[in-house]
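Continuing the batch. This is chain 6 of the set; chains 1 through 5 are on the previous pages. Same settings as before, nothing changed between runs. Recording input and output for traceability.
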Amino acid sequence: MIEITETAQKEIKRLLAQEKKEEWGLRVGVVGGGCSGLSYTLAFDEKPNANDSVLEIEDIKVFVDPKSYLFLNGMTLDYSTELLTGGFKFVNPNATRSCSCGSSFSA
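Output for chain 6:
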């Protein structure tokens, strides 16, 4: 299961409306790279791929590919409005270490 905080939900819905893509979903994933080995990815996608897990969280469709789901199951997506360090934040209990900026991790 992946969770999205209320603050992140509001920002996702705002961005979808701004881009006129209210019916689209949020693709969450991981790719190899970054200073800790894996990097998080976020993007809007019109529809899921054939093997994706599809979650519905407060009217937000979330698409996760099977490989990424192994690393993201149990993760919470948050959003911070802080001036210098604001943006989406991944709170991932599967991460054994993270880089200082929080955009990459290892499991």
